[in-house]
Design a protein that fits this description.
The chain contains eleven helices and eleven strands. By secondary structure, it is α/β, with parallel strands linked by helices. The structure holds nicotinamide-adenine-dinucleotide.
Length: about 300
């Protein structure tokens, strides 16, 4: 029977470490890490997500603000607001909740965010840094996936990892982060022939497809680490993942539940990225600031790109 990886507990632990450091940062630098979350329109689901992000950041002691914009805002106006935040030295992190209304080009907006404030890690410069292995900000959900795998104690190095899904925000960055940990990586997708033949070889299986019960017990290697990123609402209105949890937990070594697996890590990693942006900005000030920032980074657990 698989051990269930408790994402909620791990997420709380990460946030607690951040909460402890913020008063020290405020004492040292005279201000707290700040996060600006922008939402365009009033979609109920997206509003719930952004409120959760802002409230979590504030509950940790950060200074987080929500900017709500009308759904008919012009792309140029939205980009102008981002430019103002980019220029403000008191702003550490900026994120724009996606999706955006269809008249706005998401790539233009995401690329308008300064590289050093792009807490989602979605803009082209950070994506480039991720793939080049140079310093940048890695996206939250993929970072959370790596933390969840590490919490099992199963070494990633040398293992065969299969990712189902090739999106820019989950599948591809998860693959790169696993590659950085020395896994041998395969990415499966809608064009993959005989998915089962590939997933059943995986020591580490990460599924991010958005298809309920895509992964059944016969597709999983006994003892594998199974990370279910999927979130969909099924016909009964229940939030479910991509893995047939009840069946697969009898085969896998470790498995994440949905909800309570990857979701809480995504938000914890957003907090961590905001802290890292703040510390990078602080580091730029003086040698003493640099030393202090290095100490805090070590305390919250640095991330190797
Ligand atoms: P996406 O739709 O952009 O990509 C889905 C990918 O899955 C595609 O690359 C597609 O090729 C692949 N896929 C779909 N059906 C498949 C099938 N039958 N066989 C093989 N491959 C298949 O989605 P996304 O943005 O990457 O998100 C994936 C899932 O993860 C969604 O359910 C999303 O809600 C969820 N998600 C969760 C979090 C979180 O914090 N827990 C964060 C981001 C996304």
């Amino acid at each position: 029977m698989a051990e269930i990886i408790d994402g909620k507990k791990l997420g709380e632990r990460i946030k607690e470490k951040i909460r402890e450091q913020i008063p020290l940062l405020e004492k040292q630098y005279g201000r707290r890490p700040s996060l600006y979350v922008i939402i365009v329109g009033d979609d109920e689901g997206s509003m719930r997500y952004v409120n959760n992000k802002v409230n979590t950041a504030n509950s940790l002691g950060m200074d987080a603000r929500l900017i709500t914009l009308k759904s008919n805002i012009y792309e140029k106006e939205l980009i102008n607001i981002i430019h103002v935040l980019n220029e403000d030295p008191l702003v550490d992190g900026i994120m724009v909740q996606l999706p955006l209304p269809s008249h706005i080009n998401e790539d233009h907006v995401v690329d308008a965010i300064a590289k050093d404030k792009d807490v989602d890690g979605f803009n082209s410069l950070n994506v480039g840094s991720l793939w080049q292995g140079t310093h940048g900000i890695a996206p939250c959900t993929p970072k959370g996936v790596i933390q969840l795998i590490k919490t099992t104690g199963v070494p990633i190095s040398g293992k065969f990892a299969v990712i189902v899904g090739r999106s820019n925000i989950v599948g591809k960055p998860v693959a790169k982060l696993l590659l950085d940990e020395n896994a041998t990586v395969a990415i499966a997708h809608t064009g993959t022939e005989n998915l089962k033949a590939i997933t059943s070889l995986a020591d580490i299986l990460v599924v991010a497809a958005g298809q309920e019960k895509l992964i059944t017990a016969d597709m999983v290697k006994p003892g594998a680490v199974v990370i279910d990123v999927g979130i969909t609402r099924n016909a009964e209105g229940k939030v479910v993942g991509d893995v047939d949890f009840d069946a697969v937990k009898g085969i896998a070594g470790f498995i994440t539940p949905v909800p309570g697996g990857v979701g809480p890590l995504t938000i914890a990693m957003l907090m961590k990225n905001t802290m890292e942006c703040f510390l990078n900005h602080a580091e730029a000030h003086s040698d003493v600031s640099k030393l202090w920032a290095t100490i805090i980074k070590a305390r919250i657990g640095g991330h190797k790109q």
